[in-house]
Amino acid sequence: MGILSWVVLGAIMGLLSNWLVPGKFPGGVLGTIVGGMAGAFLGGAIFSLAANRGVAGFDVVSLLIAFFGAALLLTIVRKAGYAEPRTQ
Predict the structure, then answer these.
(1) 87, part of any domain
(2) In whole angstroms, what is the distance from residue 74 CA to residue 22 CA?
């Protein structure tokens, strides 16, 4: 999957993970999009290392990898004290 695809996918998954996972990325919507893109890259890198192959398409697996990468990054940012808890 190309870089542009990961950027778009990461932005979408960042918004979704920010909605589903407790906590908020700092920086509002832009921070959420950038965090989602970084999380998608993180998820892709972890998957590539663990599976010994890259992500080769835009499918359910790539969506899950991007989502879990964004959720992992949000959790790390929150534990580091940079993200605000979600208020309902």
Answers:
(1) no
(2) 9
Both structure tokens of 48: 């590539």
What is the domain range of residue 74?
3-79
- Cβ atoms of 40 and 9 within 8 Å: the answer is yes
Q: How many domains does the chain have?
A: 1
Rounded to an integer, what distance in angstroms lies between the CA atom of residue 82 and that of residue 12? 21
Tokens representing 79? 């534990």
Instruction: Tell me, yes or no, if the pTM score tops 0.85.
Output: no
Q: Which amino acid is at 32?
A: T
Express each pLDDT in 1-41 by its tens digit: 567 776 777 778 778 877 877 666 677 778 777 877 888 88
